[in-house]
């Protein structure tokens, strides 16, 4: 039975939850397919995550391998293929708790970087799981800056082999997934040396474990890097190479080849590679970043209508905590952000599909813009969503801190997204470099890519809002965001030029502006996100209440950004203090409006109880019962030797006899 | 041998590290005592934390019990007593990883709430560990709002007993430490009923486990609440009571007593109780909040001078990451905050000692101010330091995410401090209530406590700064902080009055102002922290470079607060945009200045390598070697059955035979 405090929230929905779910999925047919996949996965006990919070790292790893192996069988049974419409829902249905994800990266890197011959040799072996692949790029002392990698691959013309080595401890490969305990092969990135000359970083296929008995190959030292904040199911590994020899054919050679005599030949354009990197950044947003935030919102909002605490009005019963303005102000902006980023993800996907078509026609013009947008949004979205999950966790008080709430795991998982696939600060600085370049070009009257044409039209007006309702006009707030982005970009460009003109060297000047460059890049992305949300709302059908509630969320997303960063809008007087007070009033009013639909808005994310795996967030709101039942299953409720060994002697005053 | 990249940082210290350590300790003699305690604890293998990151919750709990038991012996051996000067350093030296902390709370609650007779009976039993105590207040459905607790204690005149019950699942006691597996007794808070009338919450001593064999007593259901984000070493427990009878004498009766005929008698003043609560909030700041932040700063800053990445200047070697402005802007403000909060902690301690003396003289005048300051600073400091630790973690990239860095545990531990001993938002609203009251009083010309006299002298001037150097003047920035605090408090008071005058009911009006009330309370605390730091610096001796570097940190703390919250200072034009640009310039300049002393500034915290327990932060900077050595010890480097069970059949294509 559903907790009446939760049930009542659903009776007053101002819109059709089912219609909103279909909108989020991209159509009712997609919803149907997704639900079928989820049902098939969740009804299979092998895929259960029930005991996850009680398991050790070893147990998590083993379960992930078991699931990966079982998934092969399942896909065959269900008739799911890698190109079928179900495929993209499988990983999400498993909540990512599955091994061999790097096996796919191994295959992709061979497909992209390998010659036709290499593809013909390795891809069938990998597809049939006659080997397990990994991808060894990051080193103990080297991450984002690939040119700094220290692993070496020296070509030996005599034997026609590359000799791979880890010359220093900082050169040891560190972090590659599936490598600690599973992989038999990996793609190693190393500095290529031929006849004493360094040709930079190249990829080499290296076997690391025996296909017979899984023992480490000669010259290989490898293992697991140990406990992490999350990802216990993944065997992130280390790898030391000592004079490991691989045949000449093992250097992936679509773009560069070392010929038998040691001649180094470069062929084709590598530009497509950069595109791969940007694609990965975009593709992780949905499953790795938005899904955790949406789950956290679901858990925290459902809990907040079931949990009652203190009295809002004297004499009444204790109030639902979501009725407190402070609780609304914590949770509802996170909900709005989840929707905002869902729509910006659609925008980015579409842009990338367009980019891909152009690139296939050998037109690389869109690459810089795609790189800037994917870098900036990867950083902004991961940062925003990580903070959002933490807010959800803390908003649930003590129970949020229990692993059984599901929130700690969501937080520790999403936190990693700020670091992997490009550290966020570095990514934002890449976006900033693009913005500064475009601003200079636009100022000089040169053409710039579509997303930054606004930099050409710098206006010096004032915000025209006259009352608080004006701040519910998308034109008003979108203009304000645009103004802030232009100001931050142009001011930083000016500071950079001033420094250089005053004699500071270019690289020093850049470093001295980086804190502000990061702000400028964020402002640009925030503007694009607000503008895109407003444009999306505009295009929605007005039926079933969807457009109306989405408009509220769009307003909240925009006004929350203003309220949390008032200085940016006040700085040059574009927005006056009086207008800021109006924006704040509208913002606070909106909280109370959206609060009414909070539960239907998270219901629309359509997570099953099994996928939430949370004692606080289940769809029936039976929070306390579930916490109690679940806690009883904890291994800490089995007998511990602490009593016989310590407590009994202490209580019986026989400690001295120990 | 010390990594030369770390060693070079120490050679250029602008001040005496040893002198600064002594200042932080409160004198060289204190430093000596602290080091002796740390040495004694760390040289004893029973207290080792070496394998902590590899242990399960069960293993952590058992180790904590072992340590607690061993500590009794150790104290005897060393001649340490609970009233000796060493005592306060023991818990810190153990990094809190020890059981039976609630046993102390059990004892304190009897001492404070019990009659002389009760104290005489129970305290010796507890001191001699003839029982193990806990403290059962929080319930599954009830935390901060004590009046809402649902556990009942009904007086039975016939048997002269109280009958305790958990009438609903939400009434189950939940979270009490030491209760899940260890405690034999606990203090249960329950609604007292006599002859059908409810007298509110009262404390009862209840035995829950047999002293003979530790089995649960009749009517008791108890156990461990399972996995949490941290505090694995503590057996936080649950407790269900079913018609559990305790004698009349077990109600703690210093302030209220139920006489044999059921007559309820209230005696004495309970005001001292509120003081206990405020004392706890202040006492946790040092060990539970500041120490984790100081450790995180030590780890992240040492790592940032050892880790090199990318090139700052073309042609040079890769740069230390602390040389990047963005990295400085992440870490150095956290360092400044650690010092700022260390000094505000001194201020609060002193205030509380004064308050305590007054209260002993039956003068309770200081209570409201003490309550407001302890609530506000508990919230502000825990929030700021939690965010600071997270920044440190993320600033270390992938390695910060490894448990072996020590940073994940620091984060998950400090995060809890935002929730326990009063949820932060609720505490800030209590501070705000005090501020609004004082503002109204001050406006009416009535006297107000010393920390809020500034509310009486509202000035409408402008910031007088003329260039960026003016923002290094404590008068300039302290005034600015004061102005913001006054504005936020007075504006919110005005909004509150307007709402009430327009017919909104008082409680609704309060709720509609809470988001802004929280901001006002934070601004007040931030102002006091800045003012106190500036005044502390003023009083320091100018010798040995201490005052100079502390002045830099004070400036940084103040300017970081302005830079991160420009809107508050710009809003009413107190600070102009041009002045804000000056403040920003000074802020960014300061980063480069303090960066030079960053390592000596964390060295002064004087943490041993064992207490940091971090592969990234050790004093010799041998980061990569230590990560590698440590990872090899992980249980994930033992054989897992995954190979035989799954990988081998997969690779050998014999899965179908499974």
TrEMBL record, chains A, B:
- For the Acyl-CoA oxidase C-terminal domain, which residue ranges apply? 474-651
What are the positions of the active site? 421
Q: Does the keyword RNA-binding apply?
A: no
Entry's localization field:
Peroxisome
Q: Which residues bind FAD?
A: 138, 177
Location of the Acyl-CoA oxidase C-alpha1 domain: 274-436
List, alphabetically, the SUPFAM superfamilies matched: Acyl-CoA dehydrogenase C-terminal domain-like, Acyl-CoA dehydrogenase NM domain-like
Which ranges carry the Acyl-coenzyme A oxidase N-terminal domain? 16-132
Record family assignment: Belongs to the acyl-CoA oxidase family.
The protein's name is ACOX2 oxidase
Species of origin: Certhia brachydactyla
């Amino acid at each position: 039975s559903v907790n009446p405090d939760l049930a009542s929230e659903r009776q007053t929905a101002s819109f059709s939850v089912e219609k909103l779910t279909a909108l989020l999925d991209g159509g009712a047919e997609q919803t149907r397919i997704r639900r079928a996949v989820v049902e098939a996965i969740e009804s299979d006990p092998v895929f259960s995550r029930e005991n996850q919070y009680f398991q050790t790292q070893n147990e998590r790893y083993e379960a992930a391998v078991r699931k990966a192996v079982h998934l092969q069988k399942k896909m065959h049974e269900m008739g799911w293929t890698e190109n079928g419409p179900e495929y993209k829902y499988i990983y999400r249905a498993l909540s990512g708790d599955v091994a061999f994800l790097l096996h796919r990266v191994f295959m992709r890197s061979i497909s992209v970087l390998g010659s036709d011959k290499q593809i013909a040799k390795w891809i069938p072996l990998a597809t049939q799981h006659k080997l397990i692949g990994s991808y060894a790029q990051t080193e103990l002392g080297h991450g984002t800056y690939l040119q700094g990698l220290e692993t070496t691959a020296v070509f030996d013309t005599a034997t026609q082999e590359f000799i791979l080595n880890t010359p220093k401890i900082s050169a040891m490969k560190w972090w590659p997934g599936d490598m600690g305990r599973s992989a038999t092969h990996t793609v190693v990135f190393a500095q290529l040396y031929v006849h004493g000359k360094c040709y930079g970083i190249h990829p080499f296929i290296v076997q690391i474990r025996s296909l017979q008995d899984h023992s480490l190959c000669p010259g290989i030292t490898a293992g697991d890097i140990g406990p992490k904040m999350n990802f216990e199911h993944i065997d992130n590994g280390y790898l030391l190479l000592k004079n490991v020899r691989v045949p000449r054919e093992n250097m992936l050679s679509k773009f560069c080849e070392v010929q038998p005599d040691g001649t180094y030949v470069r062929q084709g354009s590598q530009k497509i590679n950069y595109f791969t990197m940007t694609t990965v950044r975009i593709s992780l947003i949905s499953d790795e970043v938005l899904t955790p935030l949406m789950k956290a919102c679901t858990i925290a909002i459902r809990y907040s209508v079931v949990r009652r605490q203190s009295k809002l009005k004297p004499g009444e019963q204790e109030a639902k905590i979501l009725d407190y303005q402070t609780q609304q102000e914590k949770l509802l902006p996170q909900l709005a952000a989840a929707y905002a980023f869902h729509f910006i993800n659609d925008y980015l996907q579409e842009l990338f599909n367009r980019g891909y078509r152009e690139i296939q026609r050998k037109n690389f013009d869109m690459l810089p813009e795609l790189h800037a947008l994917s870098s900036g949004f990867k950083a902004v979205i991961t940062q925003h969503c990580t903070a959002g999950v933490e807010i959800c966790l803390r908003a649930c008080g003590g129970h949020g801190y229990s692993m059984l709430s599901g929130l700690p795991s969501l937080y520790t998982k999403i936190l990693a997204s700020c670091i992997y696939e490009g550290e966020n600060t570095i990514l934002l600085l890449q976006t900033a470099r693009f913005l500064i370049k475009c601003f200079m070009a636009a100022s000089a009257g040169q053409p710039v890519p579509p997303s930054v044409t606004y930099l050409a039209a710098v206006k010096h007006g004032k915000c025209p809002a006259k009352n608080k309702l004006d701040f519910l006009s998308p034109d008003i707030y979108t203009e304000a965001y645009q103004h802030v982005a232009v100001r931050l970009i142009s001011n930083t460009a000016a500071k950079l030029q001033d420094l250089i003109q005053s004699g500071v060297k270019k690289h020093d000047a850049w470093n001295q502006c980086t804190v502000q460059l990061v702000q400028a890049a964020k402002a640009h992305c925030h503007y694009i996100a607000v503008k895109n949300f407003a444009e999306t709302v505009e295009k929605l059908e007005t039926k079933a209440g969807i457009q109306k509630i989405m408009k509220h969320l769009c307003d909240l997303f925009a006004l929350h950004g203003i309220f949390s960063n008032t200085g940016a809008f006040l700085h040059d007087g574009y927005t006056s203090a009086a207008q800021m007070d109006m924006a704040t009033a509208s913002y606070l009013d909106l909280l109370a409006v959206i609060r009414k639909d909070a539960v239907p808005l998270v219901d629309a994310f359509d997570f099953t109880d099994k996928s939430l795996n949370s004692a606080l967030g289940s769809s029936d709101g039976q929070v306390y019962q579930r916490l109690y039942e679940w806690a009883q299953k904890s291994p800490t409720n089995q007998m511990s030797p602490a009593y016989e060994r310590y407590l009994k002697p202490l209580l019986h005053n026989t400690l001295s006899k120990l």
